[in-house]
Amino acid sequence: MINYIIRRLLLLIPVFIGVSLLAFSLLRLIPGDPAKSMLGNKATAAQLQSLRLELGLDDPLPVQYKDYMEDVFQGDLGYSIKSHDSVLEEISTRLPATLELSVVALIFAIVIGVLAGIISAVKRNSWFDHVSMTGALFGVSMPIFWLGLMMIWLFSVTLHWLPPSGRLSVGVHLQLITNIYLLDSLLTGNWQAFKDSFEHILMPALALGTIPMAVIARMTRSSMLEVLNQDFIRTAHAKGLAKYLIIFQHALKNAFLPILTVIGSQFGFLLGGAVLTETIFSWPGVGRYVYQSILSRDYPVVQSTILIIAVLFVLINLITDILYKYFDPRIRYD
Amino acid sequence: MEEQYLLKVDNLHTHFFTKTGVVKAVDGVSFSIRSGETLGIVGESGSGKSITALSIMKLVPNPPGRIVEGAIYYNGEDLMSKSEKQMRRIRGNKLSMIFQDPMTSLNPVFTIGRQLVETVRAHRDLSKRQAEARAIELLTLVGIPDPKQRLKNYPHEFSGGMRQRVMIAMALACDPELLIADEPTTALDVTVQAQILELLKRLQEELGMAIIMITHDLGVVAEICDRVMVMYAGRQVEFTNRIALFDHPKHPYTWGLLDSIPKMEKEKRRLQAIAGHPPDLRYLPQGCYFADRCKQATEECKMHEPTLTKLDDHHLVRCLLYEDIKVEST
Ligand SMILES: Nc1ncnc2c1ncn2[C@@H]1O[C@H](COP(=O)(O)OP(=O)(O)OP(=O)(O)O)[C@@H](O)[C@H]1O
Ligand SMILES: [Mg+2]
């Protein structure tokens, strides 16, 4: 197991090189003059020349890559050509915001999806099964922006229950430690900030979590149905075990492997969906940052952010693979 | 004098209500078993052996299955009137069951230690430590070497025979008075089959429990059963003790079953199964269910349903051939 993890971590090196090459070439593959494309047609020759110098665009490609990697390993992710803010600084406040949103969305998706799937499987063909599976059918094809706007219209504009945007209300103070607001407010025992940031995250997390929730619910149901028909479930009944133990321990642990695969596959979706969700709910995360940077052709920002997201993605996959082992002792890693 | 029975099944009917019709899987079966006794239930595939056993455990898959009629008494208690919660206290405790396929009957994602401990703790008020000690005791009892280490292993780390031993250990966790074994050796290699049978025999002598041995192998019956019920199409067609079954079997179906065991002296002879198939349990014929395949069948057999006839104190048979005999002798 330890060997496996070390091996997987070593594998990160070629993956990292590949991803960095990709992010690197993004900027260099722009046809024509990248500096011109970034600064627009109105830029003066002097401005273009200074940007070229700043980005080292006149050096040979291998030298540029070497310089870039050196910078990355020194923690220098470059500067925005628009705002001249440090990308590292931006990301260090925005990445936690995106992580918080994605994790809360995923928690909603897993808790509600798995529970609905279990109940549907155990009470097959009941009204609950029909309602939740019809809901899931709509859920998987739900456009996030439409759902998000409807939620804002209903819960913010009409009912005034929840704030439509941002992470924290003006006037609520929170001492930041990790930049994950829910966590920080818990760490500092700030109940007011916890409640406020929870109210802010509720709608965007539900909007972002709906599709994964629907996918997880359907997978849980079919996986549970299959497991509940297995011989060892009959054995568990014959042993006189309580029904909840049989469902939540014996059946669920067996049914969880395909559910876990689905959950792992939803991370990619979450990161993509975060772009939309963050835009609709003005959530100051990485998704919105990349989106705006692409629109404004702020390539150094795009380049570094993609690198970070890709590395994150590979790490999450590693964690999913390790969890597999927990759920299925038959899996061998050698 | 009224005999004391451990289990008494009376006129059991278990049907499956499927889209294509009612499957009469068990249709009027009655039998009883005394403490310490071994009862064999034999019959071809689909004759209702497993459903009879599951009915006793009240574990018939529902829907589509349901016990529609009959009574089951265990230790003088009426199981039919028990709630699911009350049944849970009986199952795995004083009444346990083991299944055909030890490969699939154990939960693959839990260690066998955990599966043993949870069984013990479901019925006994023991600490985890005490339950573990009991688990080690049980594994020793069923002949698994190095039991303490083995507790930490998962089912896939055991061979088929060893897994069936684990299943047996689990069934014995709370000293059952009756063990229902549903074809416990069918899925195993021949040599392993003999070992498991030996083990069950030994355990029965040591622990004194009663066993219902479900099998389609008359060799198993010869090995360990005191009395035998032969089933066909959801009904018992013959019910007698082992000696009578092999010495003077009465039902033509039993003759067929006996003919189909390969004899030692002519080992090479092909296994001679009874020609034809059992009837579709949804559309049962008028008259004797076996008439279609029976060499002795007359026109009469296809018209009249035979009743279970008592030939002597130890021999019941359901066949028109003997209804005359009974009439003559009484
Ligand atoms: N879930 C079910 N739905 C419908 N019919 C069923 C169901 N389970 C069992 N049956 C029917 O009940 C009949 C008896 O089945 P049972 O499993 O008791 O046979 P068996 O004697 O144990 O056979 P085998 O030797 O193959 O184990 C079969 O004909 C089967 O088709
Ligand atoms: Mg069976």
From TrEMBL, chain A:
The chain crosses the membrane at residues 9-30, 101-122, 134-155, 201-220, 255-281, 301-324. It is a multi-pass membrane protein. CDD domains: TM_PBP2. Signal peptide: none annotated. One of its GO terms (biological process) is transmembrane transport. It comes from the Bacteria. Keywords: Cell membrane, Membrane, Transmembrane, Transmembrane helix, Transport. Pfam families: BPD_transp_1 (PF00528), BPD_transp_1_N (PF19300). Its main location: membrane. PROSITE patterns: ABC_TM1. GO terms for cellular component: plasma membrane. It is found in: Cell membrane. Belongs to the binding-protein-dependent transport system permease family. This is Peptide ABC transporter permease. It comes from Pullulanibacillus camelliae.
Automatic annotation (TrEMBL), chain B:
GO terms for molecular function: ATP binding; ATP hydrolysis activity. Its main location: membrane. GO terms for biological process: peptide transport. The keyword ATP-binding applies. Signal peptide: none annotated. Pfam families: ABC_tran, oligo_HPY. InterPro entries: AAA+_ATPase, ABC_Ni/Peptide_Import, ABC_transporter-like_ATP-bd, ABC_transporter-like_CS, Oligopep_ABC_C, P-loop_NTPase. PANTHER family: DIPEPTIDE TRANSPORT ATP-BINDING PROTEIN DPPD, OLIGOPEPTIDE TRANSPORT ATP-BINDING PROTEIN APPD. Belongs to the ABC transporter superfamily. This is ABC transporter ATP-binding protein. It comes from Pullulanibacillus camelliae.
